[in-house]
Write a structure and sequence with these properties.
The chain is α/β, with parallel strands linked by helices. 28% of the residues lie in helices and 22% in strands. It starts with a strand and ends with a helix.
Amino acid sequence: MSSREVEVLVGGGGQAGLAMSEHLSDCGVPHLVLERHRIAERWRTQRWDSLVANGPAWHDRFPGLEFGDLAPDAFASKDQIVGYFEAYAEKIAAPIRTGVEVTSVRRHTGRPGFRVETSDGALDARFVVAATGPFQRPVIPPIVPDDAGPVQIHSSSYRNPEQLPEGAVLGGGAGSSGVQIAEELHRSGRRVYLSVGPHDRPPRRYRGRDFCWWLGVLGKWDADTPPRGAEHVTIAVSGARGGHTVDFRALAALGINLVGMTSSFDGGTLRFNPDLGANIARGDANYLALLDEADAFVERNGLDLPEEPEARELGPDPACVTDPTLELDLAAAGITSIVWATGFAVDYGWLQVDALDENGRPRHRRGVSTEPGVYFLGLPWLARRGSSFIWGVWHDAKFVADHITTQRGYLRQ
């Protein structure tokens, strides 16, 4: 790629970049999508082998293409999702170049636009859309030193139980990834400890409808501001084995050892906060509140959906909750591995413009940054609760594309 000009440069060829490309094309805006690896690379190489989507196929997709090889209520495997995005890129004829990394973006001096340096040369862009998403830098809490003994990996590096050395495993994180990996490890014959922090716990299905449907009709996907303190609270839900409601009591009954949030490590001993019962209780409250809202919606609208009183039967707390483990000698417990499902941090080191705060996080409103001409897409709560989901990013991209189109109109005057 020689030095040349492009109207809009889109950085990232995953779900956000492809959604952006579709809407820019629909608006007649010339653009180029650059992806440093392959289309949907994180689905290819930063997910475990057995992963499936957490939403059913009718929901976790773009409006313009269905999963042709899946029943609407089935959950797509990671390979099916990769195939879906490849097919979508072909369907919309996305102008995408793979294997090209954007290394820096700087504003021009004395003229509009930006200088974009890439691994294959430089170009000038009038607008830049950062569509690299939220999963940029895996975060492992600095609790257990690297030389303490156990192998420590992030969930993005986990593939299957055979990857880990023999022995027990500690799973750090009670969101979808942490729970599904813990279950898989347990079913493989491992002794598993699961560190449970704050979480939301919706029902997988209730009264014959998936939780994605309930969040939609109850208006929760469109919430534009997270509850205070809940910006990064994880959602414990699973599409594995046909989909099921995550129930920490059931996990304990299987033989998974539940502990509170991991707090510190000293002399071979890992310590946990005494918050396991409280975290599970708050998850239960979230679960029951959603059932209450669903029941009220059914009654208010006269819907013929079957009652499900058994969904409210939570059962007694297991011994690991009523008498929680607060300390664990890793060697004595036989723990040889720790899988941290503790999320990601953004990394916009390549974006050298005035669009980030002192912590490197984007400053924006609905994806429109504080640096004129720079946009963000694919981030959690970018515009609403659903912003980081496949369907949600598609709708956010339309808003950003319309904003770019409006700005181009002003510049032509």
